[in-house]
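Protocol step 4 of 6: structure prediction from sequence.
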Amino acid sequence: MLQSIWIKNFALIDELRLDFKAGYTVLSGETGSGKSIFLGALNLILGERADYTLIGPNGQKAIVEVEFQLSESLVSWFNQEDLDFAKASLIRREIAESGRSRAFINDVPVSLNQLKDLCSQLVAIHSQYDTLTLKNKSYHLDLVDVLGRFMPNRQAISQLYAKWTKLKTECKLLEEKIQKARADQDYLIFQIDELKNLELTAINYEELEDELAQLEHVEEIQNTVSSFLQLMDAEPSILGALNGIKSNFERLSTINSELKDFAERIASLSVETKELTSDLHAYLGRVEQNPEKLNILTEKLDAYNRVMTKHGCQSQSELLDLLNGWEDQLSDADAGDEKLEQLKEEANLVQNQLVTKSRELHEDRLKVVPEIEKQMLHILQELKLPEMKVRFDLSKKEQLNHTGISEVSFLIQPNPGMGWQPVEKAASGGELSRLMLTIQYLVSEKTAMPTVLFDEIDTGVSGEVAQKIGLLLKKMGANFQLIAISHLPQVVGKAQNHIKVEKNALQDRTVSKLRYLNEEERVEEVARLMSGATINDAAKESAKNLMAEE
């Protein structure tokens, strides 16, 4: 429920604080007094686009703040948005001259979408222009579902439809991927075979390069080793000379102890030279020219280097990664068929559920339509449209969508003998207003909206019809907080609470104010609406009678 509003520096309103009451409250005032400004301020709280030109002259920003008394049912929404819940919650919107707009819930900055989401559950505003929605077929179906209390069923269908369309998209994308893989499969197999022929997991190509280098220089190696061995084997031999020198150093070390260390080192050198000579003889026996193996290794390394260059790889491990990736891609193409089959099965299952629920909802809609028509006719009779008939034509359509398979047209028969016609073609302005009010009355009973505001929903009517509208609004106000902006005395007179919008001229500008009227002021305001500027005792008496009528 709307508890209060604070408006500062907004259009013609310098500063305004106003508390609201339960039941049926009416706002009245002369044309141009500022009723639309108040409505514009409230629409800001509902998340409408901010207009910096509405900032008043007393500062660089405009502020609109409202307090709502919230239901415990909104605790889950606050938890979902990571906000602290408070039964008495403040919602504020600020507009700066720069055009920047900020929104707050209990002084915590929130996005405009969060503001809209919350306030759409707190306040519904309906204006004379809402009659345009009667011409929208999607609104007709919404109306049937709201009045039939089918919105939970429809939400389930919407979720199934979203899941079904998602699965269909996944199937299409996977089919395209499989087709592409199939088209590339021959080329992919050729590339894989080319890499497999290199035996990348069995051959170390770095070692192969070393072996090839040795084979290419085997003659040079043999000559070098042979030259050394010939030198070692010549007479007198180097090894024999070392042994003789070693003996001399050992003998002299008994005379000079410092020579003992040199003798030991010459002995080690002699042993090392002997071992080196033996090892080189063995090595030379193993090294031999092998033209056949040289050709084989050259071919292998040529193939390896050619593939490395072809794929822009820098190492054997990069080639292995490439091979593994291609093998996975080839495997995915085969596994894709199985996955596609699973997706199609799931999509068919969801589609069957969607079709079943859509058919069930369509049958439920057909059953509830006569009762909705009956309720509408009853209210239309009260609003002095006793001859008007209404009908919802429901038909099945072949194509599924997020609302199911139902298609609906809202038809009326304004007078006996006239054929059934779409509401947008047959109804006059006054009839559309009364139709919309009838709809809003029925919807308000089903949706339990805490606060509803009607902006001149009574446009195009007068006299007894206006009297009936006033009584209907009063009846609605017994179920929830109802605020109506009106200029009709019959509608204004039935309100429990009366707020007047006034425009006052100051020194150099005009300001708007809103205030509650006491009982005497209410009578005078209704009398003014009935008779104009001249308010005499007779006009006041007529106003009292109008206000007292049930």
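Step 5 (inspection) to follow. The radius of gyration is 47 Å.
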